[in-house]
Design brief:
about 40% helix, alpha+beta, elongated, DNA-binding
Chain lengths: ~180, ~180
DNA sequence: TTAAAAAATGTAAAGTTTACACATATTGAG
DNA sequence: CTCAATATGTGTAAACTTTACATTTTTTAA
């Protein structure tokens, strides 16, 4: 989705505004990717676009709004054809997201407050578009020290139930500053 | 150094133009970092800046031009105070350069056609601002397979002389596309 | 002939990553 | 009450990578 920058706002603010207008979402993680400025990229008039990616929990958005603005969700492996240099933007955003995922924690933005290891693993498998080994994944994540294991279980997906975790906010923020390397090939 | 974007050029082209105007350099490696757009960043008028970093072989620039435009060179650990959000831009650029250095080859842009291992190591030590172990560095670099060892020696720095290398252009380009991880802590 | 100076070279130990399979807990059905 | 079904939870050995580290080689100028 796109929009135009106003006089009294920064690009970050504009990105927040446009996203909110079309989804109703607030407090979303947004990150600038880069500026696209080829002279003829928009055949009608000179346009410079600055792209962002957002981490959204899709279930939380306002379905009314997306309907109203005729916005749609697509899987990365089933994208519609897009105009101008937008395909390039999308590819670049995905590359950035993947790099981000293996070097900084980004779960807060996308998981419910309490979640199972399986859910966390699913998230990474989606982002990276590859299957991960359960045991190795858990070991890597535990090593990061950003999760707190709760006494509760989620029984919605199995009879045994799976322990719930939440993020250790202090550690999470620390790792967000420092970064790490999850070393997923 | 900064400048203004013209109607008939892209940001990349503007960056090339400005750099050339102030240094006379051509065919320089330039990479966009990002757009800075806070409403009040320039107290005089609304300005959006897009920052770039360039890889320059300093010896090759036109000294007349830098003198004419009163441009100066600074070490990263001895920077002058700069206006607006430029300190942030500089920090970000350095972070990007370091990441780049350990994940993509960037020697072509900064070394003479033929160079010694020592020179290559010096380059990395400067960029990363840390001493590297000679043997480990050589092993890592050789593993990348991007160098061709020549039969010539450079005798300017020792009586024994040090073998000269050049980049294997095909391999170099391949690695530039694929990336790698030099795993320097 | 020797001294000086930088270049070239290899390995063992420590640490990390990978691949891989079975036991456990729970409950719904019979 | 028992059993079947199902997803969860757990550990290790082998392969690989990284690290730390010291001596020999080559050349020439004195």
């Amino acid at each position: 989705m796109g929009g135009f920058l106003k006089q009294n706002e920064s690009l970050d603010e504009a990105a927040v505004r446009v996203l909110n207008k079309l989804t109703g979402l607030e407090n979303v993680y947004l990150e600038q990717i880069q500026a696209y400025s080829e002279v003829d990229r928009d055949p009608v008039e000179r346009t410079i676009s600055v792209s962002y990616f957002a981490l959204i929990n899709k279930e939380e958005h306002d379905f009314e709004l997306t309907r109203k603005y005729d916005a749609h969700w697509f899987n990365f492996d089933n994208l519609p054809t897009t105009i101008f240099d937008h395909p390039k933007m999308i590819r670049r955003a995905l590359r950035r997201l993947r790099r981000k995922a293996i070097t900084y924690p980004l779960g807060f933005e996308l998981l419910p407050e309490k979640f199972t290891m399986k859910q966390l693993q699913n998230l990474y498998e989606c982002i990276l578009n590859q299957k991960l080994d359960k045991r190795n994944f858990i070991n890597k994540v535990n090593f990061l020290n950003i999760l707190i294991k709760l006494d509760e279980k989620d029984k919605s997906t199995s009879k045994k139930g799976a322990f719930l975790y939440k993020f250790d906010e202090t550690q999470y923020k620390k790792k967000s500053r420092e970064g790490y390397n999850l070393k997923i090939p």
